[in-house]
Design goal:
Two copies of one chain form a homodimer.
Chain A: E1 2-8, E2 11-16, E3 28-36, H1 42-47, E4 55-56, E5 61-68, E6 80-83, E7 86-87, H2 93-96, E8 107-108, E9 120-123, H3 126-129, E10 131-132, H4 143-151, H5 155-165, E11 173-177, H6 181-192, E12 197-201, H7 205-214, E13 218-220, H8 224-234, E14 240-245, H9 250-259, E15 260-268, E16 276-278, E17 290-293, H10 298-310, E18 322-325, H11 329-337, E19 344-347
Parallel strand pairs in A: 11-12, 11-14, 12-13, 14-15, 15-17, 18-19
Antiparallel strand pairs in A: 1-2, 1-4, 3-5, 3-9, 3-19, 5-6, 6-10, 7-8
Helix pairs in contact in A: 5-6, 6-7, 8-9
């Protein structure tokens, strides 16, 4: 089968590799219908050391079940499924609490693990990981529906997680830091939770325009102290009740601390590229600001989100602004890295 | 009047000073009935630089209103009141959200500000700060009732704030770090919120015994990695849903990170003696652990807590294990610093 491998920073190749097979009785084999490239794939694209064997890539997938292991009970060949970016057993107490990305059996798909930018994928803990999409035939489904279903494997529900962990209440002021696909998804989720004001901090007009369509009431292009001042101005000097941080770098954290209202919450879904951060009296403690967030437990939110997509309530697939075939994946990485594309979908 | 002043580390004196008078039309003058010494008073007791003028001390008080400024509407002379450790206007949007300690008009009583370890005190923003105790005559009230009312000015409601910000749900596992008066108060608050398991990390038997009476199901004496292992053992390997951190030093933070369950919350009320702390993938982010807490907005909780004390539902005054007169205050500081006394009350 054709699969994407990364051999080092900037070195993405599509090659013929053996088609995966059942390894454990809890596995399923899924034929990919649509996959995509994630903003987080750009981290190894910038920094992966040279790997003579290459690392399989990709962690977002919708597809059709081809085969299931002996212990898989909930799926049969032909089922159309969404696969989240992390596998989990979905039965342990941590999964039952809704934090599947901290499951003792968690398997974060990523370089060398999973490999969903490929024609076929092996999904561990299939019953705990995958969710069926009822009543949709991917062969005849509308392209925009497929895009929105694919967006549920990671990007939309990562933005949703930011809003969910911020416990947004109707009428509240929300600031979203970052106008990438996750930031825009966070805008959409915040709007659906009833946010009264949504300030999007970003500077790419095509992106912030989609943000406005999805509910952003204000766009702040400035960063740092200047950006903080603008947000304070827009919030009567108090800052936002919820700050959804979809970047992961220290300047975004500092911006979040600057714009969060006393008693408010900073909810992070940008994977932190730092370990230590200010949390003392002058940053978080003095104003009772809270810090939340982490890798989105997509599995916890999938059923409800699938229904919302099928009902036409949300259209998170609009973050995909380019569609390519598997052999164009290297060009897809480049387009996202050059910020020519917001998010690239791969059609199989 | 007699008042407590600190002239430098370890140098506490009780002296005659001018009785405070109304300075602003929103002030009230309150005659002290009971005051006390706070664990946080020990910070300047260890580190205050030499001050030729001395700094007035104390931030916890119950007393009787003697005089009110022209703009004070809610109080008249003779009212018996509780004064929280911070003044606030209680009308701004931040106060209305319940975060009075981040009010733009906040006034943290502390060295040189307030001076409640004295026979009389001036209370700014009286209408926003003080709360009346209905139906109690302090001249004839039971001593244990006065102790419990005094405990509401800071210590109990600081422990309560830790539990409140942790959003404890019935049946959850809670770990309290620190067996000082605030930690014990956090145990009591967690129990009242329905915690199913309360693990108290502390090693002073007299204190942990009161913790057990108030609801601690387990006591862990060990600290650091050893303490973390014990808590994990007691929680099926998962850690606690809520960790109430009532110490403020980095080892307590690290302990909290070690024992918090994925998806759980660390709620801090020990004033952090650090600025930077680990918040990255391997500490908070990876397991979706949240960080909450700050200076307790005592004012937000007072009415309900007063009623609970008057109804005999809680007895937070039990943290006071020594009573002294104003002239014995220097000895009171020493007794708390030597850990001979848990918390010292001053009777006037």
């Amino acid at each position: 089968m054709r699969a994407t491998l990364m051999y080092g920073a900037g070195d993405v190749r599509v090659e013929d590799v053996p088609t995966p097979t059942i390894q454990n009785p809890t596995d399923a084999i899924v034929r990919t219908v649509r996959a995509c490239i994630c903003g987080s794939d750009l981290h190894p694209y910038h920094s992966l050391p040279q790997l003579p064997q290459g690392a399989t890539m990709g962690h977002e997938l919708i597809g059709v079940v081809e085969e299931v292991g002996a212990e898989v009970k909930d799926f049969t060949p032909g089922d159309f499924v969404i696969v989240p970016f992390a596998a989990s057993d979905n039965t342990c107490p941590i999964c039952q609490d809704g934090f599947q990305t901290a499951c003792p059996h968690v398997n974060f798909f990523g370089p060398g693990v999973g490999g969903q930018q490929a024609e076929t994928a092996r999904i561990p803990w299939a019953d705990g990981t995958m969710v069926k999409v009822p009543g949709v035939d991917p062969a005849t489904a509308d392209e925009s529906l497929l895009k929105s279903l694919l967006a549920l494997s990671d990007v939309y529900l990562t933005g949703y997680h930011a809003a969910y962990m911020a416990e947004i209440k109707p009428g509240q002021s929300v600031t979203v830091i970052g106008d990438g696909a996750v930031g825009l998804s966070a805008v959409l989720a915040a709007k659906r939770m009833g946010a009264g004001q949504i300030i999007l901090m970003g500077r790419h007009k095509a992106r912030t325009d989609l943000g406005r369509e999805w509910g952003a009431t204000d766009v702040v292009e400035e960063r740092g102290e200047e950006g903080i001042s603008k947000v304070l101005e827009l919030t009567g000097g108090y800052g936002s009740h919820a700050v959804l941080e979809a970047v992961g770098h220290m300047p975004a954290y500092e911006q979040a601390v600057g714009v969060v209202r006393p008693g408010g919450v900073i909810s992070r879904v940008g994977v932190p590229q730092y370990d230590m951060a200010p949390v003392g009296f002058t940053s978080l403690f003095g104003k009772n600001a809270r810090l939340a967030g982490g890798p989105a437990p997509v599995r916890a939110y999938l059923e409800q989100a699938i229904q919302e997509v099928l009902d036409g309530e949300i259209d998170p697939g609009r973050v995909f602004d380019r569609t390519i075939g598997i052999d164009e994946v290297p060009a897809g990485y480049k387009a996202m890295d050059d910020r020519e594309a917001l998010k690239v979908m791969i059609r199989f």
